[in-house]
What we know:
The protein has helices spanning 7-20, 31-39, 42-47, 60-63, 66-77, 98-103, 114-121, 138-147, 162-172, 184-190, 193-202, 213-228, 248-257, 287-290, 292-295, 310-314, 338-341, 346-352; strands spanning 24-28, 51-55, 81-84, 108-110, 127-133, 153-159, 179-183, 206-209, 234-236, 258-263, 271-278. By secondary structure, it is α/β, with parallel strands linked by helices. The chain has a domain at 63-161 and 248-295: HypD, alpha/beta domain 2 (Rossmann fold), CATH 3.40.50. Strand 8, helix 12 (213-228) and strand 9 form a beta-alpha-beta unit. The longest helix is centred in the middle third of the chain and has 16 residues, at 213-228.
Amino acid sequence: MYRFRDQNVARExxxxxxxxxxxxxxxxxxxxxxxxxxxxxxxxxLNQVGVEIRQGPGCPVCVTTSKEIVEAIALxxxxxxxAVFGDMLSVPTRLGSLADVKARGxxxxxVYSVEDAVRLSEKHRKVVFMAIGxxxxxxxxxxxxxxxxxxxxxxxxxxRLLPPALDALFEMGEVEVNGLIQPGHVSAIIGMEPYRKIxxxxxxxxxxxxxxxxxxxxAAYMIVRQISEERAEVENEYRRVVKPEGNPRALSMLNxxxxxxxxxxxxxxxxxxxxxxxxxxxxxxxxxxxxxxVIVNLPYVEDELEGCRCGEVLRGLIVSEECPAFGRSxxxxxxxxxCMVSQEGxxxxxxRYSGMTAMGKG
Length: 362
């Protein structure tokens, strides 16, 4: 693992968890949390006191379905300039990837923000931005829509809402966890209230956490303490950033620019009101309407390539290393699914740090 500051404090927190004397299985839903957990060897520390943490559906690239990627592929093949974040480029589908389209001459551009895509549309006749991400990134998409964009610009919205997916995960009844660690960046937008229904319905302790090693360890301690006290509440470890009410201005923009719709997630059936589609006010920017003739009759595409278990990883049923393809037929150089492609994917993170030793870079 990588060394980090305050390791003595970390050991004190772990000792406090151990003193409670409980075994617990927790879930987080954030690629940055997974990176911190693996990079700094926190899971090994927590294993010593009976706490396991798994990643759930917390990687935006990973939960985007093959159907949505095929929509972008079809648009690029039709002559539209498609702007995507870099991690989307190599996600494989049964009909190929956006990188394949680019290789055969399609105009697929990697951008670093929605603003980059808007600037592209000032120079190109037809530009579609494939908008992915949870409540963290969707306000930036809403902002450019509200500010105004060129007529040549439209949006293929693949934005997702996190709380409905968590509720759906527990409705499926496949996975049992004792508590949830919620992502600080999403929570900075939505606040604490959307999580309360989950705690009440499923009697699950939840803690909103920051991204440093001590943040994650404190979140684990706070959840274990709730379990020992038979509480199921939403607590905020990340108070230096997250306010109970979230970000009212960002929420106002989201409510104007988007409407919640039912949509499938990779590894999940359709989840009610779990995705964001452009509102009626901005229908002229909706790529699914602007280019309806291109994408209306696309073939059905299974999400997973044969042998890929990304969907099970996203539901917390297995850890990446339990997939037979991990590190063998599936690697970042030859990925079988988005969990190995995305920097926020559990498989990619596990692969990157698989050579780390216990006291420093291996």
